[in-house]
Amino acid sequence: MAFKHISIAQTLELLDKEDVVIADIRDPNSYQAGRIPGSEALSNGNIAQFMMEKEFDQPIIIVCYHGMSSQGAASYLVEQGFEDVYSMDGGFTAWEASYSEKVER
């Protein structure tokens, strides 16, 4: 099983409907400067704790800058047994460009 790609519009829909986890893997300064509301910062330093706290069937959307690095992180979570993992295409850059009113600062 592999991770799935998700658009920013689909991410917005899921945020309104499900108990979805948004895991932001950008650097701490970028995360503090602006993020998707309700997202969690995810790094090598806290990934073990993150994985212990999440359910394997819970939807997890990985967000990076442009939708590239998130693919590797999403693959890693799938390898660890998570079943519903997405990489958000376009990353936070696309989210901010389309949904600037939905950026938490």
Write up this protein.
The protein has 105 residues and is of the alpha/beta class. It contains five helices and five strands. The protein has helices at 8-17, 28-33, 47-53, 69-79, 91-98; strands at 4-6, 21-24, 40-41, 60-63, 85-88. Strands 1-5-4-2-3 form a five-stranded parallel beta sheet. Helix 2 (28-33) links the parallel strand 2 and strand 3 (40-41). The longest helix is centred in the last third of the chain and has 11 residues, at 69-79. The N and C termini lie far apart (35 Å). The relative contact order is 0.26.
H/E element string? EHEHEHEHEH
Record the strand order, biggest sheet.
1-5-4-2-3
User: Counting H and I runs of at least 4 residues, what is the number of helices?
Assistant: 5
User: Approximately how much beta-strand content do the residues carry?
Assistant: 15-25%
Q: Uncertain regions: pLDDT < 50 for 5+ in a row?
A: none
Summarize the main sheet. 5 strands, parallel
The radius of gyration computed from the alpha-carbon positions, rounded to a whole number of angstroms, is: 12 Å
Mean pLDDT across all amino acids: 96
The secondary-structure class comes to alpha/beta
How is the topology of this model organized?
Layout: E1 4-6, H1 8-17, E2 21-24, H2 28-33, E3 40-41, H3 47-53, E4 60-63, H4 69-79, E5 85-88, H5 91-98
Parallel strand pairs: 1-5, 2-3, 2-4, 4-5
